[in-house]
Amino acid sequence: MLKKFDLYIIKKFLGTFFFAIALIICISIVFDLSENIDKFIQNDAPLKAIIVDYYLNFIPYFANLYSGLFVFIAVIFFTSKMAFNSEINALLSSGISFSRLLRPYLISSFVIFIFSYSLGNFVIPPANKKKIEFKYDYIKKKKANYDRDIHRQIEPNIYIYIERFDASNDYGRKFSMEKFEDNKLVSKLTSDFIRWDRERKVWSITNYVIRDINGDKETISKGSKIDTTLAILPDEFITQKEDFETMNYFELLKFIDQQKLRGVDALEQYEVEHHRRAAVPFSMFILSIIGASLASRKIRGGIGLHLGVGLALSFAYIMFLQVTKVFALSGTVSPFISMWIPNIVYAVIAFFIYRWASR
């Protein structure tokens, strides 16, 4: 059963958190508008599109981006005020244990965890699609996409290779396709060019040579052009930097599984994003415990010192997360470990700070 002090702390926690988030969103919108207003005017961006397609989809991203930082700040701010008003001491003196005192903090953290997890996995990705479309229409032009040395498994035992692919023209050069049976090559097609025909939904292969191998016999056939279907589309060759930002939880998992099946390398950024979307919301619990444990004790320096220590720890967490992300992208550390090791380290810190505060 929740007591009155539980509801009091939950109200303080969530109220401070959402007020701080609303404030930073307003500030972010003002700075973004001042930076991009010239481009909006220059490219004749409609007012409705600026508000609905851009800024309404801009809000969830920034609300989630700063959630961890403002959980820390919110907890330290109102808990410090309670401590220096002797409210914490009064609760502890009434027989309430420190672990029991943390219950409303954990309940509030769970609410913010659901809020952050839902935003990151299901609200922000579709919002990012509209925001990115608006950005390319009215802020900056979309760059031409090229990729080199593409190796894919498009079906079981069928592999393709493209030396260079231009996604803006659906055009590739130096294409080959190999088919295996019982780990033996039975057919190989090579060509100078391959192009996707968007009207007929087929691949046009130019200047091709097909080698069919049957035991010791080999048959060679040539031609200037052939149309065929392949179990892959041009959009799958090139992935924008923002692509993973537009995929919800299930789309991201499906994409990773498909690319692994096709033998695609360099999926670290997608796997990092997948694990980050769970690790960062989970950090709300750890940061809340650290913040509550730090701010519940009266120390010289007052609220200012509490906030200073809290900001230092929160920025250290963000930096730690970025450093481990770099290691994951370079292949030094697995994406799962890179995203969860900051939580593990901070959980150990939370344990010792909790032990100190509960004495």
Properties at a glance:
2 domains; 359 residues; elongated; alpha+beta; 60% helix; six-stranded antiparallel beta sheet
Explained architecture:
The protein has 359 residues and is an alpha+beta fold. The protein folds into two domains: 4-140 and 267-357, no CATH class; 146-234, no CATH class. 60% of the residues lie in helices and 19% in strands. It has ten helices and six strands; from the N terminus they run ααααααββββββαααα. α1 (4-42) crosses α3 (67-84), α2 packs antiparallel against α6 and α8 runs parallel beside α10 (335-357). The model has no long low-confidence stretch (mean pLDDT 89).
How many domain units?
Answer: 2
Note the total helix count. Answer: 10
Helix content: 55-70%
Please report the distance between the alpha carbons of the first and last residues. Answer: 26 Å
Q: What spatial form do the alpha-carbon principal axes imply?
A: elongated
Order of helices and strands: HHHHHHEEEEEEHHHH
Major β-sheet strand ordering: 1-2-3-4-5-6
Quick check: average pLDDT? 89
The total count of strands amounts to 6
Query: Major β-sheet, in short?
Result: 6 strands, antiparallel
Low-confidence blocks of residues: none
Query: What percent strand?
Result: 15-25%
Map the helices and strands.
Elements: H1 4-42, H2 47-65, H3 67-84, H4 87-93, H5 98-101, H6 103-138, E1 146-155, E2 158-166, E3 171-181, E4 184-197, E5 202-214, E6 217-228, H7 249-261, H8 268-295, H9 302-329, H10 335-357
Antiparallel strand pairs: 1-2, 2-3, 3-4, 4-5, 5-6
Helix pairs in contact: 1-2, 1-3, 1-6, 2-6, 3-8, 3-9, 6-8, 8-9, 8-10, 9-10
